[in-house]
Amino acid sequence: MHKKNDIIFSCMFFQICFNYHFYGVDYIMAKKPFRFYFALVCGKLTIELLKLLRKRATNFPGSVVLTLCPDFLKYLEKPEKIIAVTGTNGKTTVSNMLLDILTDNGYDCTNNNFGGNVDTGITAALLKDSTLSGKPRKKYCTLEIDERSAVRIYPYIHPDYLICTNLTRDSYKRNAHVEYIFDILNSNIPDQTHLILNADDLISSSLKKDNKRTYFGMEAFENEQLIDNNIIRDITVCPVCDSPLSYDFLRYNHIGRARCTKCDFCSPVPDFNTTERTFTPDGRADIKISVNGNTEEYNVPCENTINLYNATAAIAALRTFGLSYEQVSESFRKISVVKSRFDTYEKNGRTLKCILAKGQNPVACSHALNTARSTPDTAVIMIWDDFFDGKTTSENTAWIYDVDFEFLDNDNIKQIIIAGKRSPDHLLRLLIAGIPREKIKFTEHEEDAAELLDLDGIKTTYIFFDLYTDHYKEIIKEKVKEKMNNAD
Amino acid sequence: MQIEILFPEQCSLFGDSGNVRYLKKCLPDAEFIHTSLNDTPAFVTGSPDMIYMGACTEKNQEKIIKRLMPYKEQLRDAIDSGKVMLFTGNAPEIFFEYIEKDDGSKTEALGLFRFHAVQRLFERHNTLVLGKFMNREILGFKTQFTQTYGDNSKNFFCSVERGDGINKQSMLEGIHVNNFFATSLVGPLLVMNPYFTEYLMEKLGVDNPQCAFREDSINAYNIRIKDFRSCKSLH
Fold first, then answer.
1. Torsion over CA: B166, B170, B171, B177 (sign)
2. Staple A300 to which of A109, A311, B28, B190, CB 3.0 to 4.6 Å?
3. Domain range spanning residue A279?
4. Residue A148's CATH number
5. Which of the listed residues A72, A90, A109 is the one where a domain comes to its end?
6. Cα–Cα distances in Å, from A304 out to A88, A225, A342?
7. How far apart are CA A164 and CA A430, in angstroms?
């Protein structure tokens, strides 16, 4: 082991000497400052050290590099083609789809799919696949980019294609409101970037009006359960003349096809328009997309209509990038949704569904609750407390008043279990939503949630969890599975 | 009883609609009037018993100031006559003299109070606030781009124990004149503060006011007070 490490470090040292010998002063001084190379080498050493310690890929090498050289990204050479994904909801799913399909078609891509979508994570991803002279090892790159980080990313990284999935309300503490995030993106996205935009989102579809753009969207489907009664709608009047908007259809929140009742402002026409969808029992869907008057058919790993936007966005981007219909279609058949985001278990006629929804994000949590509206004899377990806030402060739970807990005020919902320190606040929210007190149980301790579940008369149990409460979800899931195995 | 909600489509950014929904549960017989941006406010055409407005975006705040400017005197009369008025988040700023922006420019506001707000769009301020109003704890959160300046030593809403007042140097939060309450605390202020809600209900003429889900509400309130006092970080 030690010998192997010695070899790695010796090779790195040799490469620095080699670069210096052949490029001389240029290597040290020209265009790129010394601090850049110093940071580069330290970053590389950090990556090797993490490997030695058997730690998984993290933002940490990026943090090291940006501490030593804050404008590191300015000097690092970038891959030839960059496809990036931003937006409030769905960007991780779309990024995963892009990477899987590009890889399946022989494109070797630098990527940040390990989860770091802010400047440190993106730096770590590019650093990992760069040479010691700061050149990219790979020609292609897919990046998930946090929308709030636009100020620190786009001055240095100019994506050839940028998908914006949607812009909706997110963490109040960090993202404030949609208008604020829109302005950040609008003033930082490079002029030459080709945008892939959601035609059904009146907010994000208005980004960078003069940029080249391709729109994706979805028709209102036959028998689709449209949600026109969400609590929040981030655009309510025409942005041009302040008159009320009229919707051809409203799918959820402000997502749908709209027109102004007074002026000619309206939703753009999608270039990639999903016109039909049929869900299959394996959690997938067959969809038809209209493209330039032709119809393309895909089988995609999406278990509900809202997630079909992610697949439609990925298809629009990949086809615009240059992949053929056949290439995208064949690859899509091979990919599945990451289990940690959506997981099901069936036993003795009962189903357990674990669904990830970003906490403090009212739209994502409302989507999750919407899935529980139509399943018969349902129990819901929610662990949505913010893990980090819970450790240091008292979480601002204002966001739960923008979540559609009213969706649970249905006869099919038999039990609701809330777990976590903030459960008394969630209890009040559920009562205000009209849910009878006797249906609700709560505990301060997440691990105890399964004990409160009574499977008698329950066919479907949901566990809704946040990204950082995955460990609690696993504990609860195992206990519920055990109950299901032992039940009649 | 009539309660006017000003511009609910724009002014419910941080869970503020929770206040309205809770009021509906507390006052099931009250009539709620939802005034849109292009409507003439009910306090101009009629006489609602209470006016409420929540937080909005910076651009909408400017639009709202323009819309309300012609009704400045009616608002002044409402405050002077003791109408129950609650303005949360950045809604109080519409009553100030001006809002100063990042570039130093100033947006003139209604000028009913000698205060001004300083807006810094890259300095988001988040904090919890534990204060006291009429010998009862007030709990709330701030999430904002602005700091307020002016003298509220004689007309503050609550004195602050943890967190901060109208600005980072102040320990006095908000404005309270007659039955006019203005505070930058966001979200479900009324849900989080059952005793304050009952105080407002009393001001609205309710005998022996009892807020909705009282037992659970007071339980959550007491847990939060302990939490606010003991947590390490304010944000």
1. negative
2. A311
3. 76-334
4. 3.40.1190.10
5. A72
6. 18, 11, 11
7. 33
Task: Indicate if A321 and A356 belong to the same structural domain.
Answer: no
Chain A residues whose CB is inside 8 A of the B37 CB are 237, 242
Please state, in angstroms and rounded to a whole number, the distance separating the CA atoms of residues B12 and B228.
24
Which residue, among A187, A236, A396, would best test binding to B if mutated, counting the most B CBs under 10 Å from its CB?
Answer: A396
Residue that is last in its domain, among A17, A43, A72: A72
Candidates B15, B58, B233; nearest CB to A393: B233
Both A330 and A346 in one domain: the answer is no
**CB-based contact B228 A394, cutoff 8 Å:** yes
Contact A235, A245 (CB under 8 A): yes
The number of helices, as runs of H, and strands, as runs of E, in chain B is: 7, 14
Domain boundaries defined on chain B? 2-230
**Residues A62 and A80 grouped into a single domain:** no
Range A72-92 average pLDDT: 96
| Dist. CA B19–CA A428, nearest whole Å | 12
Do B220 and A425 make contact, defined as CB atoms within 8 angstroms?
Answer: yes
Structure tokens at A480: 């519920």
Distances (CA, A) of A56 to A4, A154, A246: 19, 27, 49
Neighboring chain A residues of B212 at a CB cutoff of 8 Å: 431-432
pTM reported for the whole predicted model: 0.91
Instruction: Select the residue from A428, A429, A439, A440 to test the B interface by mutation, using most B Cβ atoms within 10 A.
Output: A428
Measuring CA to CA, which residue among B82, B164, B93, B177 is closest to residue B129?
B164
- Are B12 and A243 within 8 A, CB to CB? no
- Predicted confidence (pLDDT) per residue in B215-224, tens digit: 999 999 999 9
SS3 A252: strand
Same domain flag for A154 and A302: yes
**How many structural domains is chain A composed of?**
3
What are the Cα distances from residue A229, in Å, to A205, A251, A252, A407? 22, 10, 8, 10
Are A90 and A199 part of one and the same domain?
yes
Q: Which of B223, B226, B228, B234 to mutate to test the interface with A (most CBs of A within 10 A)?
A: B223
CATH assignment at residue A458: 3.90.190.20
Strand, coil or helix: what is A470? helix
* Mean pLDDT confidence for B225-233: 91
Residues 6 or more apart whose Cβ sits within 8 Å of residue B27: B1, B3, B201, B204, B206
**Structure tokens that stand for A198 in this block:** 């959601």
Test A399 with B15 for CB contact under 8 angstroms: yes
Q: Do A393 and B212 touch (CB under 8 A)?
A: no
Q: Are residues A82 and A68 in the same domain?
A: no
Q: For B50-73, how does the pLDDT look when each residue is reduced to its tens digit (9 = 90+)?
A: 999 999 999 999 999 999 999 999
A407 and A453 fall within a common domain: yes
For domain B2-230, the question of CATH label 3.10.129.10 is answered with no
Nearest CB to B186: which of A392, A398, A431? Answer: A398
Interface confidence, given as ipTM, is 0.95
Chain B residues touching A152 at Cβ < 8 A: none
* B125, closest residue in chain A (CA to CA): A173
Beta-carbon separation of A180 and B141 below 8 A: no
Sheet of strand B146-149, all strands in order from the earlier edge strand to the far edge: B106-108, B98-100, B116-119, B146-149
Mean pLDDT confidence for A59-82: 95
Could you give the dihedral angle defined by the CA atoms of residues A90, A93, A98 and A99, in that order, rounded to the nearest 10 degrees?
A: 140
Cα B48–Cα B52–Cα B53 angle in degrees, nearest 5: 135
User: Same domain, yes or no, for A443 and A396?
Assistant: yes
Predicted confidence at residue A7, as pLDDT, reads 52
3-state SS assignment for residue B80: helix
Contact predicate A54/A5, CB 8 Å: no
